[in-house]
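Figure 3 (text version): structure tokens given as input.
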């Protein structure tokens, strides 16, 4: 787990999202067409809002797709949260040098969706997992 350095743009996005959703936001990654926010444990419902009102408001504000992921100290649950809405069959950790390699087993029909076009989803999962836990790599099997 490295030190998380937030750019001014990232801090502004976190502040705006926190203001409009009322949720405690821990981190965010901004990509070309989407923003992924990590909210504190127990804050996911608050972040999304009643009838996804907060989510819709933030989508129109940022003019990008917005996704909220709930943080968890337990790295297995955190990786599962990063993989939602896809069902994870099994998560295994390998490695003994302090940083783990995570292997995620999913339903074969969800595998390509979880990886994403040009690997964009798995790259986001990998980046968030490495930023918040001692994880070296994330692989889909």
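Below: residues designed for each position.
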């Amino acid at each position: 787990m490295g030190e998380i350095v937030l750019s001014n743009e990232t801090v502004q996005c976190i502040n705006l999202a926190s203001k409009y959703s009322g949720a405690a936001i821990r981190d965010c990654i901004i990509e070309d067409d989407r923003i992924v926010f990590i909210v504190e444990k127990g804050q996911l419902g608050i972040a999304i809002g009643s009838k996804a009102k907060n989510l819709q408001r933030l989508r129109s504000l940022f003019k990008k797709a917005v996704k909220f992921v709930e943080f968890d100290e337990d790295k297995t649950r955190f990786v599962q949260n990063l993989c939602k809405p896809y069902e994870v069959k099994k998560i295994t950790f390998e490695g003994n040098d302090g940083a783990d390699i995570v292997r995620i087993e999913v339903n074969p029909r969800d595998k390509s969706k979880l990886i994403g076009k040009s690997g964009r989803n798995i790259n986001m999962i990998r980046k968030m997992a490495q930023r918040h836990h001692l994880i070296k790599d994330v692989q889909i099997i």
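Residues 42 and 70 are 7 Å apart (CA to CA).
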